[in-house]
């Protein structure tokens, strides 16, 4: 099947926008992706047709919205090929998913002197919750370093793994460097020592195939809005054996079975971890987004984005004074770079006026910046709807900026 | 020259630029004329940290009772705007600085750079300039 880029672009109304009178080139997909018509109309439809609080409702609309919400859970389960539907917990996003595990897993399984392993290319969201846990429990955070190319040093990881290690938390794809980490290998190594692994998939699910059962990840977190879905909805996949033994994260409605002042009993999975009114609108929109991605095919998207990444890398490399940060052989999604000795925010601000949206700064990965001894980069991140022509615009714009600063 | 005359002068200078690129070009040019803070004054205590760019600001009170500002930034466009703020506010009495209403930023179309959502240190810098003036004013009145 051929990849009909024009047809795909037509599904995203925002791509027709002009900024400062110029056509929008949206290369900030790592921060959030744009939404296709089907997602936008599904949210509209929820509020127009079926809006009603889910679960326990006795009336017609409540049954409909509950069905739609639980169907969304099924769509997520199938999208990542999880074994059980009750292993899919809806959260507000990747950050919330990781914090949930850091709290609940931490309460149950982490004690003084234990160690948790992360990598030095994590987003702050996959560092800070573990630091907070370590502080609470007097545990230690261990860090896998990476090399100049942006590849994790697996040999170092092997050395860090010990009987003290209680959890490994690693991103599947680096938001700054674009590296696709060898998570399968990491999981295998950890599992040999019976250590569970959490994968931060915020930058992965929208770019590459994620098969939970094949990966055998114990926890997997991702956000809806980075995979063409709405904001405020995310997913935590957790293995039943852990989710069952972990205490709830938040208390409230929907997560309980019975409440009395003597003893409260908790609901079954996944509801135990979904306190309060769920973001059912978000979940329904997310399901629509996943269906949209599936209809195009994640492997087709991967091929298209790979071509963009290769073309972009080739074009940007033509600029002699441009340095790309993150040169792994196994990359997806993003090109981080610095142009000559021009500050990243200058480049970003001028690109903006040329209609090109990028992200600049440290990308919530200060340890990555420290490693390269820089304060930030310019990041162009791609999605299914980006084109080579847009990369040409970026390329020409960067050359103009070079002229301005010469 | 008083603060408002300086502001009006800047507004006039920017009137010839209707294109964003020209404006930015001019800011980059201005950034080269900034009365730069000396390296030894680029202390942590003089640093105004933004998420995007960093600004260093130093203030002294001269014998005539006027505040002299020096500053620097690691980003050129920010530095250009810094140079405008300095041009308007430096070499004035603390009282004049405290009372100054900075309308020129809006008039030359750079207001977005001074919004709290732009984490470039500029808004914090402006606040810091006013705080210096308040501190010097208190010192003069003692």
SS summary, helix count of chain A: 14
Secondary structure tally, helices of chain B: 6
Count structural domains of chain A: 2
Average pLDDT confidence of chain B is 88
Total strand count of chain A, please? Answer: 17
Question: At the first level of CATH, what is the class of chain B?
Answer: Alpha Beta
Strand content of chain B is: 5-15%
Strand order of the largest sheet of chain A: 4-10-9-8-7-5-6
Q: Which H/E pattern describes the elements of chain B?
A: HHEEEHHHH
Q: What's the domain count of chain B?
A: 1
Spans of chain A of at least 5 consecutive residues whose pLDDT stays below 50 are none
The CATH architecture of the largest domain in chain A can be named as: 3-Layer(aba) Sandwich
Overall spatial form of chain B: globular
Mean pLDDT of chain A: 97
The rounded Rg of chain A comes to 22 Å
Largest sheet of chain A: 7 strands, mixed
Beta-strand segment tally of chain B: 3
Strand order, biggest sheet of chain B?
1-2-3
CATH superfamily of the largest domain in chain A: Type I PLP-dependent aspartate aminotransferase-like (Major domain)
* Helix content estimate of chain B: 40-55%
């Amino acid at each position: 099947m051929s990849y009909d880029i024009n047809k795909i672009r037509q599904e995203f109304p925002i791509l027709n926008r002009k900024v400062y009178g110029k056509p929008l080139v949206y290369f900030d997909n790592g921060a959030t992706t744009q939404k296709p018509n089907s997602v936008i109309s599904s949210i509209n439809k929820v509020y127009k047709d079926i809006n009603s609080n889910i679960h326990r409702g006795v009336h017609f609309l409540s049954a409909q919205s509950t069905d739609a919400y639980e169907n969304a859970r099924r769509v997520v389960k199938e999208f990542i090929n999880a074994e059980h539907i009750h292993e899919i917990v809806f959260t507000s996003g990747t950050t919330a998913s990781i914090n949930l595990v850091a709290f609940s897993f931490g309460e149950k399984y982490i004690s003084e002197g234990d160690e948790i392993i992360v990598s030095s290319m994590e987003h702050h969201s996959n560092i800070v919750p573990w630091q907070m846990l370590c502080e609470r429990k007097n545990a230690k955070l261990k860090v896998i370093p990476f090399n100049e190319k942006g590849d994790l040093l697996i040999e170092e990881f092997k050395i860090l793994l010990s009987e003290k290690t209680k959890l490994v938390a690693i991103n599947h794809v680096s938001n700054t460097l674009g590296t696709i980490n060898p998570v399968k290998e990491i999981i295998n190594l950890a599992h040999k020592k019976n250590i569970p692994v959490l994968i931060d998939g915020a930058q992965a699910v929208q770019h590459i195939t994620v098969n939970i059962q094949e990966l055998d990840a114990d926890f997997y977190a991702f956000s809806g809005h980075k995979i063409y879905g709405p904001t405020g909805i995310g997913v935590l996949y957790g293995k039943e054996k852990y989710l069952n033994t972990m205490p709830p994260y938040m208390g409230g409605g929907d997560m309980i079975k019975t409440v009395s002042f003597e003893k409260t009993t908790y609901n079954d999975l996944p509801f135990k971890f979904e306190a309060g009114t769920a973001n059912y609108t978000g979940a329904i929109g997310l399901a629509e987004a996943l269906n949209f991605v599936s209809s195009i095919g994640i492997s087709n998207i991967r091929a298209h984005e790979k071509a963009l990444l290769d073309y972009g890398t080739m074009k940007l490399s033509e600029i002699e004074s441009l340095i790309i940060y993150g040169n792994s052989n196994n990359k997806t999604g993003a090109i981080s770079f610095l142009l000559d000795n021009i500050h990243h925010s200058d480049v970003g601000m001028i690109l903006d006026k040329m209609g090109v949206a990028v992200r600049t700064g440290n990308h919530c990965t200060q340890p990555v910046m420290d490693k390269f001894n820089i304060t930030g980069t310019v990041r162009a991140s791609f999605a299914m709807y980006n084109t080579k022509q847009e990369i040409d615009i970026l390329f020409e714009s960067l050359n103009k900026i070079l002229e301005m600063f010469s | 020259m008083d603060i408002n005359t300086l502001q009006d002068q800047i507004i006039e200078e920017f009137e010839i630029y209707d294109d964003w690129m020209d404006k930015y070009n001019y800011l980059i040019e201005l950034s080269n004329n900034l009365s730069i803070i000396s390296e030894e004054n680029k202390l942590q205590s003089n640093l105004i940290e933004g998420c995007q760019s960093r600004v260093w600001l130093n203030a002294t009170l001269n014998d005539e009772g006027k505040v002299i500002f020096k500053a620097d930034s690691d980003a050129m466009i920010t530095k250009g705007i810094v140079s405008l703020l300095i041009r308007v506010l430096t070499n004035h009495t603390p009282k004049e600085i405290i009372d100054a209403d900075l309308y020129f930023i809006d008039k030359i179309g750079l207001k977005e750079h001074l919004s709290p959502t732009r984490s470039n240190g500029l808004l914090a810098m402006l606040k810091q300039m006013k705080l210096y003036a308040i501190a010097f004013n208190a010192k003069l009145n003692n």
